[in-house]
Design goal:
single chain; two-stranded antiparallel ribbon; 7 helices; 2 strands; 183 residues; mainly alpha
């Protein structure tokens, strides 16, 4: 039994008032997200609007927590690097802390991934990466990367909310249509 079947079985076994909480929990799981969670809820018998709202809420709460955490982590790293940098009397940096060494292969892979993400960000901007990101990566990963490279928390959260609402609504309508026509 896979994770999706587990959530569907769980939804079917719990009281109706608890079912949206299960859908929200599923929405917080990467690769299931709001779209998958809403579909699980709809297939499990929850009204489509309730399933979609619960799934969106679970997905967005998870994304918001990750954005806040990665943004704070970035601030801590930047502040620490600034504190370690040597500055002359004119305020110019004359030295910087030594970079940590990594194995060449791992460093090259990380650099390639970072470059690919940066090209997508340069080409499509935060709105494009947020809206198209779910085609390749979970919103949790995309949002964390955006916050970690320094995009403002508010901008990331707004565009991730738009993406979560859009994708979840679209797939909820599709799932509802399939259930309706199959019945």
């Amino acid at each position: 039994m896979n994770l999706i079947e587990t959530f569907q079985n769980l939804v079917a076994q719990v009281p109706e008032l608890v079912q949206p909480l299960i859908v929200a929990l599923a929405g917080a799981v990467p690769f299931i997200e709001g779209e998958g969670a809403a579909t699980i809820g709809i297939l499990g018998g929850i009204p489509p609007v309730v399933a979609a709202i619960a799934a969106m809420t679970g997905n967005f709460v998870c994304v918001a927590l990750l954005v806040l955490a990665s943004s704070r982590a970035r601030e801590a790293v930047v502040n620490r690097q600034r504190a370690k940098a040597l500055v002359d009397a004119d305020g110019r940096v004359v030295g910087a802390p030594p970079a940590k060494s990594m194995p060449v292969e791992e460093n090259a892979r990380k650099a390639a991934r970072k470059q690919k993400f940066q090209r997508a960000l340069d080409r499509y901007g935060v709105p494009g990466v947020s809206l198209l990101g779910p085609l390749l990566l979970p919103t949790q990963f995309t949002a964390t990367m955006l916050a970690a490279i320094g995009v403002s928390k508010a901008r990331v959260l707004i565009w991730q909310a738009v993406a979560i609402i859009g994708w979840t609504t679209g797939l909820s309508l599709l799932a509802s249509g399939i259930v309706h026509f199959a019945a």
